[in-house]
Amino acid sequence: MPMDNEAIKEVNAILKWINVADDVKDFYLKVGEVEISLSRNENSSFFADSKIAKESAAAPVQAVPAPPAVAPAVQPAAQAPAAYEQPAENEVVIKAPMVGTFYAASKPGAPAFVNVGDRVKSDTVLCIVEVMKLMNNVEAKVEGVITKILVENEQPVEYGQPLMVIRTN
Question: Could you tell me the pTM of the whole model?
Answer without folding.
Answer: 0.52
